[in-house]
């Protein structure tokens, strides 16, 4: 059983990655229903939280059915991060997670996210302060290093473990790689298999099929896998991986009816939670995957991503359900 502090998270947990404008309550709801063992909020600005900015505070919304859940925070100032962790803790998640991996210029070049990989002593001090500031277990998500010449992930893991983090997720890319190239899981395995490391190590990067999940689990020995992009518009990936791990066989892919019904609920919740304009806009990136493998779907996808009316979208989804009722998606 993998434990984060005292929290049991399953034999081999599958985690939904924190993703900005994606890992929100509507999307988390459908991932949870489809097998995600543990989830994180998208990253939340520590400065936003301490200034009580509505945009940051609303990201603290969590629901009981989502548990266990981690709230992820980011920032470059130790004092703000300490205070933000305490604010996040009041929202009552199971875990406080620190983002030391974001590669985006406006974050990383200010020394937050992956930027802190250039200052490991500060990273350790910030983490120590956060661990001291909260009672809940603190976890970290990071990358291998800033670039190829600064990969010190084993040292990072040891130093963060020393100051009390309870699990570490490693995305097998450097900041410089952004999302390009392939994730290097051998470096993740180096951390996992290091004799001094005893906290759970979760691997992240490029898992997009049950086969790959099983292969990487066996090859790299990690304690669990975090999935990001492959879950966008395809929350079924969690149960598909679980089923394949347990039986060696593939779960039948979701039927058209299931796809329409999950997309519809996701859209409804998005609009309810974020309002019509933002809810519709942020839903757009999910449609391609929701309707993957359906021949001649393109004109419908175009209509789905171009419409800005909830009523119209509900009509298009109903039409999809009728027009493609006999189609078995080819995945
Ligand atoms: C749209 C998008 C938003 C992301 N936002 C965050 C974030 O808020 N916090 C974070 O730690 N990582 C974030 N990431 C990185 C993912 O959590 C993950 O590490 C990365 O996508 C690699 O995993 P994957 O290959 O399974 O997608 C984001 C990734 C994407 C694609």
TrEMBL record:
<keyword id="KW-0285">Flavoprotein</keyword>
<keyword id="KW-0819">tRNA processing</keyword>
<comment type="similarity">
    <text>Belongs to the dus family.</text>
</comment>
<dbReference type="GO" id="GO:0000049">
    <property type="term" value="F:tRNA binding"/>
</dbReference>
<protein>
    <recommendedName>
        <fullName>tRNA-dihydrouridine synthase</fullName>
        <ecNumber>1.3.1.-</ecNumber>
    </recommendedName>
</protein>
<dbReference type="InterPro" id="IPR035587">
    <property type="entry name" value="DUS-like_FMN-bd"/>
</dbReference>
<dbReference type="InterPro" id="IPR013785">
    <property type="entry name" value="Aldolase_TIM"/>
</dbReference>
<dbReference type="InterPro" id="IPR018517">
    <property type="entry name" value="tRNA_hU_synthase_CS"/>
</dbReference>
<dbReference type="GO" id="GO:0017150">
    <property type="term" value="F:tRNA dihydrouridine synthase activity"/>
</dbReference>
<comment type="function">
    <text>Catalyzes the synthesis of 5,6-dihydrouridine (D), a modified base found in the D-loop of most tRNAs, via the reduction of the C5-C6 double bond in target uridines.</text>
</comment>
<keyword id="KW-0521">NADP</keyword>
<keyword id="KW-0288">FMN</keyword>
<feature type="binding site">
    <location>
        <begin position="228"/>
        <end position="229"/>
    </location>
    <ligand>
        <name>FMN</name>
    </ligand>
</feature>
<keyword id="KW-0547">Nucleotide-binding</keyword>
<feature type="binding site">
    <location>
        <position position="72"/>
    </location>
    <ligand>
        <name>FMN</name>
    </ligand>
</feature>
<dbReference type="Pfam" id="PF01207">
    <property type="entry name" value="Dus"/>
</dbReference>
<dbReference type="InterPro" id="IPR004652">
    <property type="entry name" value="DusB-like"/>
</dbReference>
<keyword id="KW-0560">Oxidoreductase</keyword>
<feature type="active site" description="Proton donor">
    <location>
        <position position="102"/>
    </location>
</feature>
<dbReference type="GO" id="GO:0050660">
    <property type="term" value="F:flavin adenine dinucleotide binding"/>
</dbReference>
<keyword id="KW-0820">tRNA-binding</keyword>
<dbReference type="InterPro" id="IPR024036">
    <property type="entry name" value="tRNA-dHydroUridine_Synthase_C"/>
</dbReference>
<feature type="binding site">
    <location>
        <position position="141"/>
    </location>
    <ligand>
        <name>FMN</name>
    </ligand>
</feature>
<dbReference type="InterPro" id="IPR001269">
    <property type="entry name" value="DUS_fam"/>
</dbReference>
<feature type="binding site">
    <location>
        <position position="171"/>
    </location>
    <ligand>
        <name>FMN</name>
    </ligand>
</feature>
<feature type="domain" description="DUS-like FMN-binding">
    <location>
        <begin position="15"/>
        <end position="310"/>
    </location>
</feature>
<keyword id="KW-0694">RNA-binding</keyword>
């Amino acid at each position: 059983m993998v434990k984060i502090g005292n929290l049991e998270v399953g034999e081999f947990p599958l985690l939904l990655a924190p993703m900005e404008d994606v890992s929100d309550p509507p999307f988390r709801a459908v991932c949870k229903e489809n097998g995600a063992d543990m989830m994180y909020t998208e990253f939340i600005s520590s400065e936003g939280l301490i200034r009580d900015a509505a945009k940051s505070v609303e990201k603290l919304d969590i629901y009981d059915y989502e548990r266990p859940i981690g709230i992820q925070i980011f920032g470059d100032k130790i004092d703000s991060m300490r205070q933000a962790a305490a604010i996040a803790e009041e929202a009552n998640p199971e875990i406080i997670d620190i983002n030391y991996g974001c590669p985006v210029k406006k974050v990383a070049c200010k020394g937050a996210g992956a930027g802190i990989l250039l200052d490991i002593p500060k990273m350790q001090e910030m983490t120590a302060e956060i661990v001291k500031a909260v009672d809940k277990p603190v976890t970290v998500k990071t990358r291998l290093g800033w670039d190829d010449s600064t990969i010190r992930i084993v040292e990072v893991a040891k130093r963060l473990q020393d100051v009390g983090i309870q699990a570490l997720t490693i995305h097998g890319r450097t900041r410089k790689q952004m999302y390009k190239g392939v994730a290097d899981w051998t470096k993740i395995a180096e951390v996992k298999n290091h004799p001094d490391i005893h906290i759970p190590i979760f691997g992240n990067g490029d898992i997009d099929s049950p086969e790959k999940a099983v292969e990487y689990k066996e090859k790299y020995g990690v304690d669990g896998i975090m999935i990001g992009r492959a879950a966008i518009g395809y929350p079924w990936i969690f149960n598909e991986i679980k089923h394949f791990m347990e039986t060696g066989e593939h779960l039948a892919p979701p039927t058209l009816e299931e796809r329409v019904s999950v997309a519809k609920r996701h859209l409804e919740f998005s609009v309810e939670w974020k309002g019509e304009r933002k809810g519709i806009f942020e839903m757009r990136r999910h449609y391609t995957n929701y309707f993957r493998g359906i021949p001649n779907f393109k004109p419908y996808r175009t209509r789905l991503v171009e419409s800005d009316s909830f009523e119209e979208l509900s009509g298009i989804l109903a039409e999809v359900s009728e027009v493609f009722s006999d189609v078995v998606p080819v995945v």
